[in-house]
Automatic annotation (TrEMBL):
Residues 115-129 have a biased composition (Polar residues). Belongs to the metallo-dependent hydrolases superfamily. Adenosine and AMP deaminases family. The gene is AMPD3. It comes from the Eukaryota. Residues 98-134, 189-215 are annotated as: Disordered. It comes from Macaca mulatta. Homotetramer. GO terms for molecular function: AMP deaminase activity. This is Adenosine monophosphate deaminase 3. The keyword Flavoprotein does not apply. Pfam families: AMP_deaminase.
Length: 215
């Protein structure tokens, strides 16, 4: 049996379909939708009559927290500046009150050549008076001008000073009982005249006096 040289035509597995009217309508509809999408992309940057909020609660919360922290930092900086300014004004006022004026300062007292009545007068000898040394104050004077300096009222200052003076007096008497030395300047500025003549038992608690009497 002789074989032919021309290959036989293979049958088509998938038949060729012609575009029908329905397919044409679908293609036209797809083109319209695609063109509409392109127009929306072009007009996306244009201003619209209304805006749709983007639902992002985490971003909104973080933005609010940042704004709140910024406002708090600004308020704190303003309050700090005001506090520094008021402190400088108060400091300058207190220093101006403590500084002596030109009228109050009269300089050291001049030495007067007044002789003591107990000094013997020698005939024929020239008396040269010794200049008295300038008496410097042992403590500086402090001016308390109100409760704005340290936040403490004058009544509290007075009560604290009285309590401190009372404690120092008790300490002085206990020191004399124990034969200890008490600072002379502190005893002088306590203001009681019986610092050296008062008996040691004065000012002690009643229990201590009872025990001493029983012994």
């Amino acid at each position: 049996m002789a074989l032919s040289s021309e290959p036989a035509e293979m049958p088509r597995q998938f038949p060729k379909l012609n575009i029908s009217e329905v397919d044409e309508q679908v293609r036209l509809l797809a083109e319209k939708v695609f063109a509409k999408v392109l127009r929306e992309e072009d007009s996306k940057d244009a201003l619209s009559l209304f805006t749709v909020p983007e639902d992002c609660p985490i971003g909104q919360k973080e933005a609010k927290e940042r704004e709140l922290q910024k406002e708090l930092a600004e308020q704190k900086s303003v309050e700090t500046a005001k506090r520094k300014k008021s402190f400088k004004m108060i400091r300058s006022q207190s220093l101006s009150l403590q500084m002596p004026t030109q009228q109050d300062w009269k300089g050291p007292p001049a030495a007067s050549p007044v002789m003591s009545p107990t000094t013997p007068v020698v005939t024929g000898a020239t008396s040269q008076p010794t200049p008295a040394p300038y008496a410097m104050p042992e403590f500086q004077r402090v001016t308390i001008s109100g409760d704005y300096c340290a936040g403490i009222t004058l009544e509290d200052y007075e009560q604290a000073a009285k309590s401190l003076a009372k404690a120092l007096m008790i300490r002085e008497k206990y020191a004399r009982l124990a034969y200890h030395r008490f600072p002379r300047i502190t005893s002088q500025y306590l203001g009681h005249p019986r610092a050296d003549t008062a008996p040691p038992e004065e000012g002690l608690p009643a229990e201590q006096l009872t025990l001493d009497g029983a012994d």
